[in-house]
Design a protein that fits this description.
heterodimer; A: alpha/beta; globular; B: eight-stranded antiparallel β-sheet; five-stranded antiparallel β-sheet; disordered N terminus
């Protein structure tokens, strides 16, 4: 594993994964929308690990720009060993319910852009007959809830996409790891209350790195979310409908 | 005197109503509508109120912890100011480099190390942290950014070293690391009895040892004869270069208030003395327990319970160091209050130049007392009076009680410092001693 592409290169979780996977021989291409932040992360990773880190700026979030960035990243690396999809954000549920444009933006950021990027790189990996894909979805996609179901429904879509892609790539040498973190202490969750279930990003990053190495199919991280979501998924709809959380 | 609630202000103890904002990227402006006067904040490990801002906002700078560059030839490390000593060492030690100065805990940020111009066991040989800072970038609340070093914006440079975060947000800093051959130190621990024995060993140790510090049995500050263990060490030439892992032991959140009572204090000191007086004369010790003994148990501060910990740390100039120390011990003895931990160390001549830097030539004494504060007030006031008369000063990072007059006497550069204080920043300490309105 030497060549990495990260879509959503300024993600703190992605940075933690890379900190644990990169070495002096590694090459990385980060993609994102903010050149200054991408440069900060690239310099950090290359200083820390000795890896050659580069970044690609997405002109905009359009389907064409995302696909082109994915192809450009693949061209730059030649061979792609690991693709990590870390692109996403936490939209404001209440405002989304009022404004359709915000829903569209959220759908692009959390579903459209990851899916298009992933399909482009998957094609290259499939042709090469090797590679590992990690897709960061969320436990929020396992069962919708009142407080963030716009986000949850998009993550549910991304999880379904990952499962389908895994079937398509079966036997091709390319693995797909669907990653479902619980709330992690990152800039994305800065507005949320810091409860006991807020996970440490370094720990989550370490678990993701291991799951990619082991080509796991589904990773709940921290692991106890597997049990929590097993229960929550099992709740009958009439019970869940009464719950407000 | 103003009533100040003095709980050890460590993260978890902050009042729940405290407003916080965070700075995630150094390229971003300060959070819009930050809503009041703010204070750059790291781990909040300072014992006093330099890291508190009850009526304003704490600006969490811990997310700023990206590395920027490292020159493996010269040891110059440039990193964002929210990076911790722990994180720096994990990166630098395997490559054969160490921070030139480290405090007693590795859970402090680079920015905090500069803002408090921290010192370590090697102050007599290496000076304070600020001596090794080459440059940094400062963002003021008006949005202006300043690249500061000894020739460019030197006033802001020297005001910010030891400037308690009041001159702006340090975005990143470049610090010169020192080469090491191993991650171990060659250490000697020498039991001593009586203050004269301390002064003798201390004098002999200054030149041959980079690191020196004396631990005193707090209970022996009472009626019995003073005793302690003198630790001195040099970086070892042998041994691997390993970043040492953190501790797995942690103190539970709620500890009965009576835990650190007089009997417990006596027992802990007895155990420490017994353990150390039986060590081999010279031994190899990993850097972690040598420099960061308190980090051996995570959240050790919880041992103090709700009464809190009050450290009294002063510096006494060389001329009055011996009689002054004896006088302070006499005051403590008469008060009947027993410090849980007492530490003495020589400060050398090398100055960082920071306008409000605490380390100054002489002797520094740090005394840890369990609270509550009300029971310590009389003692601290008596000590303050002696320290002022001896021409000494208190360490702002540890202080929660000195009055403006004492601050002005101990930090005569405060007047020109006032001119560079950022109008958008305040801390409880700054307000208390008159550095901000």
């Amino acid at each position: 594993m030497t060549n990495f592409i990260v879509h959503g290169g300024t993600s703190l979780i992605a940075r933690q994964v890379l900190e644990q996977m990169l070495g002096p021989d590694s090459r990385v291409v980060l993609t994102g929308r903010d050149a200054a932040r991408l440069e900060i992360v690239a310099r950090h990773l290359s200083t820390l690990t000795g890896a050659a880190c580069d970044w690609l700026l997405l002109e905009d979030a359009s389907a064409a720009a995302v696909a082109e960035a994915a192809r450009a990243a693949c061209r730059q690396l030649g061979q792609v060993d690991v693709l990590l999809i870390a692109q996403g954000n936490l939209p404001d549920q209440a405002r989304c319910e009022e404004q359709g444009e915000l829903v569209a933006e959220a759908a692009i950021a959390n579903w459209q852009s990851p899916v298009i990027f992933c399909l482009e790189v998957a094609r290259v990996m499939e042709a090469a007959g090797q590679g590992r894909i990690g897709i960061i979805s969320s436990v929020a996609g396992d069962r919708a809830r009142r407080s963030n179901f716009i986000y949850g429904s998009l993550k549910a879509g991304l999880s379904a996409f990952a499962a389908g892609l895994r079937q398509r790539l079966r036997g091709s040498g390319v693995s797909v790891t669907l990653i479902k973190p619980g709330p992690v202490d990152t800039p994305m969750t800065a507005g949320m209350k810091k409860g006991g279930l807020m996970a440490n990003p370094a720990m989550v990053g370490g678990e993701i790195a291991r799951a990619l190495r082991e080509r796991r199919s589904v990773l709940y991280t921290p692991g106890y979310w597997r049990a929590i979501m097993w229960i929550i998924r099992g709740l009958p709809e009439f019970v869940l409908a009464r719950m407000r959380f | 005197m103003e009533e100040t609630p003095l709980i050890a202000p460590l993260n978890e103890n902050l009042s729940p109503g405290q407003v916080r904002a965070r700075l995630d990227w150094r390229c971003d402006p300060l959070p819009a509508g930050i809503g009041g006067l703010f204070l750059p904040y790291g781990f909040g490990r300072s014992y006093g109120d330099v890291c508190l801002n009850r009526d304003g906002v704490l600006l969490d700078c811990r997310p700023l912890r990206h590395l920027i560059s490292f020159d493996a030839e010269s040891g110059l490390l440039t990193a964002e100011a929210g990076i911790s000593v722990d994180e720096i060492l994990a990166f630098s030690v395997p490559q054969g480099w160490f921070l030139p100065v480290v405090p007693g805990t590795k859970y402090v940020t680079l920015g905090g190390a500069i803002a408090n111009d921290i010192h370590g066991k090697n102050h007599h040989s290496a000076g304070a942290f600020g001596c090794h800072v080459e440059r940094f970038r400062l963002r003021r609340s008006d949005g202006s950014e300043w690249l500061c070093d000894r020739s460019q914006n030197p006033d802001l440079f020297f005001a910010t070293i030891g400037g308690l975060g009041l001159t702006g947000v340090i975005l990143w800093a470049a610090v010169r690391l020192r080469p090491i051959r191993s991650s171990f130190l060659s250490v000697e621990s020498i039991p001593f009895a009586g203050i004269d024995a301390f002064w003798k060993i201390n004098e002999e140790s200054a030149a041959p040892f980079e690191h020196t510090v004396a631990w005193l049995d707090g209970a022996s500050l009472g009626p019995e004869r003073l005793r302690g263990i003198y630790h001195r060490g040099n970086p070892a030439d042998e041994g691997a270069r390993l970043a040492h892992p953190g501790s797995r032991w942690s103190i539970p959140r709620r500890v009965p208030d009576a835990f650190l009572n007089r009997i417990a204090i006596r027992a802990l000191n007895e155990a420490y003395y017994w353990k150390n007086s039986r060590k081999r004369k010279t031994y190899l010790q990993p850097y972690d327990p040598f420099f960061f003994p308190l980090d051996g148990i995570l959240n050790w501060q919880r041992l103090y319970g709700r009464r809190g910990l009050f450290q009294y740390q002063c510096a006494i100039p060389p001329a009055s160091a011996r009689p002054g120390t004896a006088e302070l011990f006499e005051v403590i003895r008469k008060s009947g209050r027993m410090p849980y931990l007492a530490v003495m160390k020589t400060f050398g001549e090398r100055a960082s130049g920071g306008w409000l830097s605490f380390p100054r030539p002489g002797i520094t004494i740090a005394l840890d007392f369990p609270g509550p504060e009300t029971e310590l007030r009389t003692l601290f006031q008596a000590l303050n009076e002696r320290v002022m008369r001896l021409g000494g000063a208190l360490y702002p990072a540890k202080d929660s009680q000195m009055e403006p007059a004492m601050f002005r006497a101990g930090f005569p550069n405060y007047a020109r410092f006032l001119e560079l204080v950022d109008a958008g920043i305040r801390s409880d300490f700054a307000k208390r001693v008159g550095l901000v309105k």
